[in-house]
Structure formats: C-alpha cells, structure tokens
Amino acid sequence: MNSHPTPEPAGTPPTPKQIRRWRKYLADEIAEATLYEQLARRKSGEERQILLGLAAAEKRHQEHWRQLLGPHAHKLPGPSVHRVLLGWMARIFGSVFVLALAQRAEGESPYDQDLDATRGMAADEEIHEEVVRALAARGREKLSGGFRAAVFGANDGLVSNFALIMGMGGTGVGATVVLMSGVAGLLAGALSMAAGEFISVRSQRELLDATRPTQVTLRAAPDLDFDHNELVLVYRARGLSEEDAEHRALERLGVFECDCRPELSYPRTQGEAAEGSHNDHGVVGSAWTAAGSSFGFFAVGALIPILPYLFGATGWLAVGVSTALVGIALLGTGAVVGLLSGASPLKRALRQLAIGLGAAAITYALGSLLGVTVA
C-alpha cells in the first residue's frame, strides 16, 4: 500500500474545493452502499452476509464525510456516472457483470492519496477490492460452458466470416459470389463450432467422471481382511499423504467413525467449496447447451458481415457498411469479455476491434493478390 498523506490539523475551515470533493465522495459512498444492498437482496446465505458487510463498511465511510461536511452535508451532487451505471445494471442483470465492474471501481479509490481520508478508509477500499474480486470469481465460475460458447462463438463468427468475405471481395468477384461465400462460411463455421464445442465439453465431462472417486471403498470395506488390504494404496494413489491415507483406510474399516463422503478421500484443490465437493460439471456445462450456443451465436456473428449483401448493396458501399456493423459488434463482444475478466471493457473492446479488422485487412490484401494472379 502507498503511504497515506498526513491529514490537515483539526479545526481548519474547509475550502469550497474540499466541500465539493467531500460531497462527491459522500454521494459515491451512498451509491456504493445501495449497490451492495441491491445485490444482497438477490443472494442468500454467505454471499448475502458478505454483501451486507460491504454495504455497512460504505456507510461507515459516509459518516466520516458527513462529520467533515457538518452543515454542508446536503444538496449532494449525483454519484459518478460509473456508479449510476453499476446501480442500474444491478437491478437489471444481477451480480456477475456488476461485481466485475465494482471490482475495478474499488481498485480505483482516491482515498490513498487524499489528505482528508483516513488510513483506515484507504485500507478498507483495498480490502473491498479483494472481497469483490473473490465474489466476482464465484460468479465467473458459475457461468456455464454455454455462455462461454455464446460469447466466443459470436466473436469467431464475426471475425472469420468478415475476413472471408473481405478476402473474396479482394479477388474482384461479384457481390453474389461474395454473398454465397459468406452464407457458406456461416453454415460451415457454425456447424464446425457446434461440433467442436460438443466434443470438447462432452470429453471434459467424461474425463471428470473418470477422475472422480467412486463408492467402491465403502462397498468393499466390510469384506476386506483387516491385516491385509490395499485401502491405504487407494488413498495414496489419489494423492493423500501416507498418514492421511492410513487414517482414511481405518475409517473405512470401521475403526474410526466414517463420514461416508467419497469426495473427501482425495486432496481438495484450492477454491473448492467448504461444504462439499466442487461442482465441476456445473462449471463445464452441458455439451448440448454449449453446442447449441456456439452454433447459434456463431451464426449470428457470421450473419452480420453479409447483411449489406443480403439487402442488395455492392462494391465499396457493401464493404463500408459491413465493416461498420462488424466493428460495432466486435466492440460489444470485446467489452463483454473485458467485464467478465475484470479488465478494462474499453481496452478489451479496442483490442477485439483491432484483431478483427486486422484479420480482414490481411485477407483482403491476399484476395487482391490472388485476383491479380488469376487474372
């Protein structure tokens, strides 16, 4: 943490600039507390308590600014646009996207460099960032393979089909040929993506099924020879230490009380829920859902570049409209990826745009070269 500046001596009259800044801080703290309370209403159990704890901390910060403002703690300005957007998204979309944005907001707190904020408040904001980061990570883990396939399928459809029609356009062929090439690319790409996602997710689920421990130790334990059995080897093969493996084997043989939960018979990985086994299948998602999402969103993404051709546009007009539509869509998919990763949505959107337009430019140049060569 950066060293916090020494505050002004008590009793110094606040300047108009300080009053404006404190009012802004107070408005933002009120908005943040409201945001966490809104999110808490959609949750239950531990997550609800964590969010309410964050709201209570923001209310403590409010009191600090109210005390400094005194009679000036009225007619507050509106909170920052970012916090207004967060509150609106909390009501509409729920927690996953909002927590990713809130993580960035907590990490950009000005308190660490402000003379009027306490060291404790600056430390609070740093801790809040880590709390929100952990909550956001929980939400990201709950996103199924279908959602992942949708986001990346749409992006792949945009880039691949846009590059395809730009390459075909560069050869100098007519608009009808470009359109047919785009339709073929849409169908082939969507089917390929769906098949690939289905195989990938199904294979991953099968690998998880093959990896998880079974109930065989429970079924076989009553008939095993106490002095000559391989139970310890089972648990050591699963990765337990020799001491833990011996203890687990004795539980199975009835020497110790057994909790009879096979998922506890192998090392727990970091991030697993304390109440039981990690829901790996839930994280991976359904193979059919992933395939359907990938097919549908790839097709939607691939449709966008050929829309001008479908409506009869030709030549540079079609190229310009297609480029504009694809650019807007790439910015949208990039921003979504940025939100989910907790990174800057703008930077991710611009990166996505640069990659998509760069791929199209290269294929257009190659198509132009090929057209000249064929001619």
TrEMBL record:
One of its GO terms (cellular component) is endomembrane system. Keywords: Membrane, Transmembrane, Transmembrane helix. The chain crosses the membrane at residues 162-195, 287-311, 317-341, 353-374. It comes from Nesterenkonia alkaliphila. InterPro entries: Ccc1_fam, Ferritin-like_SF, Ferritin_CCC1_N. Pfam families: VIT1 (PF01988). GO terms for molecular function: manganese ion transmembrane transporter activity. The lineage of its organism: Bacteria, Bacillati, Actinomycetota, Actinomycetes, Micrococcales. One of its GO terms (biological process) is intracellular manganese ion homeostasis. The keyword Phosphoprotein does not apply. This is Rubrerythrin family protein. It is found in: Endomembrane system. It is a multi-pass membrane protein. PANTHER family: FE(2+)/MN(2+) TRANSPORTER PCL1. SUPFAM superfamilies: Ferritin-like. Signal peptide: none annotated.
